[in-house]
Structure formats: C-alpha cells, structure tokens
C-alpha cells in the first residue's frame, strides 16, 4: 500500500508462499458432517484429456500438503472439475448425494448488499483475500471418510474443509466471525475482507489489527488478490467508492452486448445478470414484466424452448439493458440523514425507493436503494 504502509512504523503482513498451503491450526474450529442413512457411493467419471494432467497435478499437490489422503472409505462421490478465472482448474467432489443426506447448518451467511451499510464517510479502502481459506479448517476425524472422492487414480478423502460440501460456507463464516468479532471497520464475506477507514493513519491501525487477528488464527493472505489503501476498489461485484456503489463497467457491458435470447434458458441467464444489479434500477419489475411472462411454466435452467419474440418484448429487452447502462450511483446510507420512502404501484408491479437528503444541496436527494416487485396480476404491457 503506497500511503498507509509506507510510514515509519512498519506493519508486518503474514505473506503466503504460493507453493505451500501451510495448514497449521492455532484454532479449535472443526467441520462436522452429520448424516442420516447408509453411505452413498458413485462410480468414477472419465476426464477430458485436456484437463486430465492438470487435475492429477492438483491432486498430487493436495496430497503433498496433507489436504487429502488415500482412502478406504465406504463413501464415495464423483470428481467434478471447475474452471477458474486464471485458466487453471479446481477439482472438487460432486457432493450432491452426500449433501442430500447431511443435516443442514442454519448459521447465517451475510447478504451480498449488507457491506455498504457502514461505509458512509469512509474514504480509504483495502480488500483482503484469505489464501486457501477453506483448507485452514480441519474436518472432524470421524467425518473425513464421508468426503471421499473417486478418481481415475483411486479413492481420496479430504482432511480439510473443501468446496461442494453443503455446510462448508456456514462453518467458514462462523470461523471468520470469530476471528474478526468486534471490529466495526471491516466486513467479511467468506474469504473476502473489506477494510474501510476515514484517513490513511486510521487505516494503518485498522489493517494492523486485522493482520494480528489473522496471524493469531494461522491465516495467510493471497497478496495477488489483495488491494491496500485505495480510494476505490471492486468488492463482491460492485465498485466501492467514498461516494457510494456503482455497477462494474465490465458487467454492465456484458449486459449491453447480450444478444436477443433464443431460448428460455438463455433468457433466464440474461435476467440473472441483470437482476444482480436490480436495486440500482428504477421500475425494474415494470421493465421486465414481459420478459418474465416467458418464464411461466418453465422447466428449469435447461429449458431450451424457443421464444416467440414480439416487437413489444424486443423493446422491453432493449429497455432493460438501457436502464442498467444509465444507472450512476447508490450512495452510502448516512445514519443521521432524513429519509423519504417513495412508493408506486400499477396493475402489474409495485415498487419503492428509499431516499436520503443531501447536506450539500438543500433540495437534492440521493437514492439508497430501489426495490420493485411484480404482482400476481397478469402483465398487459
């Protein structure tokens, strides 16, 4: 960090060595897998030749680090390969059958939008990413056999928390809340941490406190994914600034470049992209009314029925893209600012916008959030 860390008092950061996961465990958090019924099993899946060597190399790395070990378990789940953004692959277990017989952990996962509630008046931000975060949590010894994954090279089981297990996010979120409890200047969502401060000097102290907490619990940072002491950054799909939140330009561009969907499945994907930023868009339900009417009676995500587009529906599709492109900013809620709730309703939608008054201009107002919802009435637009 150029400003906050280049001071006379150094801030020691526990930087990772990418070749070593380092699964020391100076904490007592353990992941349990409580199941009902007999063990579930699966046959190994054949891998694509292009990913075979990469997946095998990753398994050998995990084996060398003690993350997995050879297994003789009566349980087995098939191997699933997930492509990563850096063009590498992440081999994980397809634990759907195991998850179906696992008791659910009800520990709450924070909402993606909640991190903005404490950002009013904050001007300096840092984003921290925990290195190999899930692998820092051991699995209870009696439950390790349940994680067994069948591969072309044999059966392996995880000794550490891994992706795909139904309660893995809950266990890790509980752990991170324990690590950072009582720190109002940071927000944690699984392995991503946002630190926010009003000044560089304050930010330096905040980061030092977070670093000390992480180091005390044996956690390391993935420095390549961290940002320190900047006026704006990307966090959980949003551009965070001192003024407020904005949609990411590349996400908006992806919506603008989206071609007219030919099938229900493609339309559902478009609406998913669009509605991630729904609270930025006024009258979203009204604009999307016709598009959602195509989804009635849908057979799910793989519904490949073709859409019979009308001129009105095409116009609604383009309008949805344009309204997202025209969004500017949602300001951070000011605790003491006067609030005004603006509501509206029609035959096919209801909506509301929460505004707060600005002290900079006497009559100006900034939107905190938009919220619209389709009603049960049929769309006639």
Automatic annotation (TrEMBL):
SUPFAM superfamilies xref list: DNA/RNA polymerases
GO biological process: proteolysis
EC number: 2.7.7.49
InterPro entries reported in the protein's UniProt record: DNA/RNA_pol_sf, Retrovirus_Pol_polyprotein, Rev_trsase/Diguanyl_cyclase, RT_dom, RT_RNaseH_2
Top class in the EC scheme: transferase
Keyword Nucleotidyltransferase assigned: yes
Domain of life of the native organism: Eukaryota
Annotated TM spans: none
Residues covered by the Reverse transcriptase domain: 63-240
UniProtKB keywords: Endonuclease, Hydrolase, Multifunctional enzyme, Nuclease, Nucleotidyltransferase, Protease, RNA-directed DNA polymerase, Transferase
A single MF term (Gene Ontology): endonuclease activity
Record-linked PANTHER family: PROTEIN CBG26694, PROTEIN NYNRIN-LIKE
Full protein name: RNA-directed DNA polymerase
